[in-house]
Amino acid sequence: MPEQQTTLVPDLIPRLAAIDIGSNSIRLVVAESQAGGRYRILDEELETTRLGGALASTGKLDDGSIEASLAALRRFQAIAAGLNIENLRAIATCAVREASNGKEFCRKVKEQLDLPIEVISAKKEAHLAFHSVRRRLDLAGKNTLLVDIGGGSTEIVLASGELIESIYATTLGAVRLGEKFGVGQSLAGDDYDRMRKWIDRRLKKTTEKPVAPIHLLIGSGGTFTNLANMVMAAKGQSRLPVAGCQVSRAELRHLVDRLRKMSLKQRREVAGLNPDRADIIVPGLAVIDRVMRRFKINLLQVHPYGVRDGLLLSMIEQMQGSGEAPPADETAQIERFATACGVELEHSRHVATIATQIYSAMCEHYELNPDDCRLLDAAARMQDVGYLINYKGHHKHSYHLICHSAMEGFRPEELEIIANVARYHRGATPKNKHENFSRLEPADQQRVLSMAAVLRLAGGLDRSHNRTIQSVQVACSKSQLELSVAADEYPEVDIWAARNRAQLFENVFDTEVSIQWNGSDL
Fold first, then answer.
1. Stated pTM of the model
2. How far apart are the C-alpha atoms of 384 and 425, rounded to whole Å?
């Protein structure tokens, strides 16, 4: 009897849909999942509802845009149902997130359409946009700036390779700026200069200039797509896809100067520009220009995908399972992340061992929580991940990389504590003027101080990076912490370094630190 074969027919291939409710438009993507976490688009639809059109002036979603959005969502639901989708997720971004009646809008959608809306944070929005880039572009060895411009906000992601270092959420949305500074020919004069200076001030306030040079600016969102379409149309390349299109800052500025002097009617006739964007294209392009100035970048690359793509990819990965086997345990996950950042694992493991030995022995005497040994161990193993960015100030880069690592197994508040402990394994003493430290509750600040103080000692005890000190015995008294280190020979460099790093510990615990080698009377 011949062997029976099973063929996967189209009706059995999972179909998914993603709806992105933005400040300017609502978009639907229906896709068919494929092997390897990929998908094939079956249908796309977009409606410009300007849900965030009145947000800057009123703080609310206006009734007209709400009704238009409900009608669009009803049509999108019907399209998705007609294509027999198995899973639909609808997300809302800046407008719904910020509006005082945003929750009321979500309630109306649920009551009228039975469609739950997930209002995502700016950070989640940035992660989804970057996930799209990471899956589609080779970022190895590159310092990348991803800029995702929406109607109400612009998210900026600074990354090294495939790892996020910083996320900057700004209120520089194209619709919001248009409402504030105008959209017509008034932008030909002083209004444009005022807008440009205002954007510069916001960028200076909300972003930090990177230590290392940026190799690539990647633009995501409708503003970038329309920019590419206009540039390519002017070059007679309209037939080509916009993915990967590169635009120089000089080309961008020339285009902005031309568009801002046009009437809205004239802009609607510009080749490559979606007529629905004629009123907000100049504010959007102004954001790109000022970001390029802020980060000293002269060339950008357009990524025509974005948040919706990142959402679909995440949905498929969740359905199919990640293509990569999950780490065997928490420590394996930490070390995989550390390895991706180029950390010297043997050193970090040894420091983690010494740190937890000291901390465990201190818990009873100093009334510390033994469960924090787990967080201290993680911080020790990841303290040097910031070397990926730059040696100078690497402890600060470690903080950002750990915060954005999306490390499974740790609650968000635990990851924040781990990142802070790694941040203070060297450098300045934690201060309330440090934003990362001031965000913590007082009790968590004390936990960070305690663990960071121990981590500095442990790091000093392997300053030579050769694991000379094999173990540490700890004796606690009212006025002194005595560390007796075991080593085959006198570890001069390590003891010297630990003594030099004892100040934070002595301040935090109000006690003196004594370090001795148990191999002699020195």
1. 0.76
2. 9
